[in-house]
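Technical note accompanying the year-one report. For the benefit of new consortium partners, we illustrate the data format agreed upon in the data management plan: each record pairs a sequence with a structure-token string. No post-processing was applied to the example shown here.
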Amino acid sequence: MQQSQIINKDWFQPVSITLGLLCILLYALTGNFLCLATPFAFFYCALITINWKTAYWLLLFCIPFSIQIWFLNETLSTSVPDEPMMWLMLLLFGVLFASNPKILPEWWWRNPLVMIILLQFLWLIVAVIYSKELLISVKFLLAKIWFLTSFFVLPVLIFQKKKDFRTAFIVTVIPLMGTVFVIFYRHWQLGFNFRKIEKAINELYYNHVDYSTILSMFFPVACIAFVLSRNQKWWVRGILLFIALFLLPATYLTYARAAMIAIVFAVVIGIAIRIRLVNLIMPVFYGLITLLVVYMSRDHKYIDYRPNFERTYMHTNFTDHMIATFRGQDMSSMERLYRWIAGARMSTANPWTGVGPNAFYYYYKPYTVTSFRTYVSRNDEHSTTHNYFLYMLVEQGWPALILYAILVFVFFYQAQKVYHRFEDKFYRSVTIGIAMMFAAGFINNFFSELLETHKVGSLFYLSIALLVILDRKSKEPIPE
């Protein structure tokens, strides 16, 4: 087990008290809130040197309520406080790796999921080199580096025992439910209005899609936590049951169709793993999508589904929204189809390396089909393809898309093997919970591109990292 302390902590208390008092004095004189943030930044930097494992738990704790801020005339952005904490985690790993190049065990490098993530990262570098928008692609690459370090690499040094899995759940569920209750209360004050969910979310999440994805990914984890609480006190079980049940109406009231489908798909994956059928799901899924693409592209069949502007519009309530979705009269669905067609046509121009990470917006409009254009096609928010497979294809080329497709299949394949290899009920339950969380994330990302956001991406990559750790534990049971 890795030591979590880097230097001696005797200096911490007097220095922190002095700095705290000084910053309070400066705030009183200047009124600048950065003066109040300085002691917390100092505290976290000091905590990493004293006990970096605790600092990692604090990072997980801060993710749910971290918010996006812009600076330099809104040309750059970051999420605080979690992204600066990721920068420090990257620095921490650099120090640990420099002091011990073998800090990552050999079994970790040999895992197929690690190999796929490594290949994805290497191809990302190639795509950045050939990017048509080099600056924004380099920023994308840098963000990916500290993201993967924090949520894919460092967990192998953190999650050693069962208590670490429990701690991760606790430090995540408390702030997450805090944001859920705040948003739920705001939405209640707005009468749970379909069109005002974004106002209720406000700055806590990017939008209702980001928020609903987190809820749908965390729902199976909450259910597994309740199942594992059989021997806990009644009030602990009651709280966990309330959390699991409350996440269902909370997800519904986001009015996000993908999140609802994601919960159903996660349940299907859980059942399929138990009965050893999960290996069939992704080949069938990929096969159906391929057949659909062939059917729609043959003789330009997709033209028949262009929107009727007299009947295609935004809706004021969720019931009309769902009915319009099935009738092909929903504005957001038509806009999504507009982007998908553009992405598919755009991929033929740069099939191998794409246009570069984060560069879709600057090049897709010449490839659009005007008959699918809607009044929201101005795309003022600079959103992308609304499908992660196409997102990989148009920005990083076919190798990136294929690697992502393989990653999803291998994840479920390995999850099933690990689940049935375990005899320990705790690790069996954790394995299936992680697989269901990943499954919910996968479905949401089929209709969006959220893996680069700090909240969804952290859960997605953490689920892969934990499965790698569980795979090792299933082969070498550790008596506890």
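Partners are asked to follow this layout when depositing records. The chain has two domains: 1-103, 107-480.
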